[in-house]
Specification:
- The structure holds two protein chains of two kinds.
- By secondary structure, chain A is of the alpha+beta class.
- Chain A has a six-stranded mixed beta sheet. In chain A, strands 8-7-9-10 form a four-stranded antiparallel beta sheet, sandwiched between helices.
- The longest helix of chain A is centred in the middle third of the chain and has 17 residues.
- By secondary structure, chain B is α+β, with helices and mostly antiparallel strands.
- Chain B has one domain: Ribosomal Protein S5, domain 2, CATH 3.30.230.70.
- In chain B, strand 5 and strand 6 form a beta hairpin.
- Chain B is elongated.
- Classes of the chains: A alpha+beta, B alpha+beta.
Chain lengths: ~210, ~280
Amino acid sequence: MEEETHTDAKIRAENGTGSSPRGPGCSLRHFACEQNLLSRPDGSASFLQGDTSVLAGVYGPAEVKVSKEIFNKATLEVILRPKIGLPGVAEKSRERLIRNTCEAVVLGTLHPRTSITVVLQVVSDAGSLLACCLNAACMALVDAGVPMRALFCGVACALDSDGTLVLDPTSKQEKEARAVLTFALDSVERKLLMSSTKGLYSDTERRYSKS
Amino acid sequence: MAAGFKTVEPLEYYRRFLKENCRPDGRELGEFRTTTVNIGSISTADGSALVKLGNTTVICGVKAEFAAPSTDAPDKGYVVPNVDLPPLCSSRFRSGPPGEEAQVASQFIADVIENSQIIQKEDLCISPGKLVWVLYCDLICLDYDGNILDACTFALLAALKNVQLPEVTINEETALAEVNLKKKSYLNIRTHPVATSFAVFDDTLLIVDPTGEEEHLATGTLTIVMDEEGKLCCLHKPGGSGLTGAKLQDCMSRAVTRHKEVKKLMDEVIKSMKPK
């Protein structure tokens, strides 16, 4: 487990700067993942989506404070640090989303009265930040060897004013979009684990984006 | 006997009820608790509303103050929500800085205001580049018995409908603002977002309007905020068990009916208040 695993994936090879226009459809930016790059945490991963990059570290299963311990499950904690400034209310809300998603897949009952801490650091933000954080957290949990019943992935999509769907939007596309939807889907049953949306959209558009 | 069983095995106790398609408090799976709303109770606030969803009680007070707009949006006012969950409402909360639950709820309400465009921020402008209104919306929970997000959204909507802003003119010579307290006008509320919360049990069963105990036993929660045209302002599903597309569809239709119920209730209350 000491060697670095470097996975590179290209779907419809495109430059990840976002300045080149992407047509509607299913093209994602170039994404990459690197595991086991930090020496102190039990597991770590860096996930890159275009220019958005998030670094995740997982400590666990480790000792837990008596006030926080759950008698039959592991206590999951997520800490999200923004690139600039101190963590605020928006970060707390995102931490809650990521934590609940991880709790749904991690087999906490195998490690009762322990804590699993996921620390996420935003390295650069160029759109689809929440999706990138989810992916980084998942890869870091895998690298740490935490037992999970499924893998999950985060996907962001933006709906612009005429209803066209763009996957993995850049910050410019997110700003111009009417709505930005972020989903987390699990790998085994393809069910919706987490959903967080920004903006107004109709129900049919939601169903289209989910498919 | 039942109380003992409930303490020892709360999940099994609940499952027995859910098998019969009902809940311990006698409700059906898709039934909401009795909703009551009281508008204009706080006389020192510019707008206020008290909402009770069964036992869950949330009061919202809106205060309007002056502020200088930011340079990149000189004609936009501000709406600043803040949800407070004091130790009064439940033994889970301690006094001190806002805990995670309160921060998440505040962020949720801020997102709802932003996404649904309930108020056009340009309406809050008095003098572009110099003076705008800032509406501080403080939501305080007085009794926490589950489903705080629905109650907060409803309280916010009712309070904003109750807000009356005085007319402000900028005096040309002194460049000071003159407030005419005698002439007040209501805010222009463009949409009516209504939140409907669901709790997921055992990855399959969906119940509407969970109480505090049900939220604790649930494996996941889902909140849908809809406006009157059936447009979704927010689909908030913070993790938890997975949901299939068909289940989500059921939730959507329930949210639509709930929206109609809430709108009817609000219109009745507003109508009864108007001749003042």
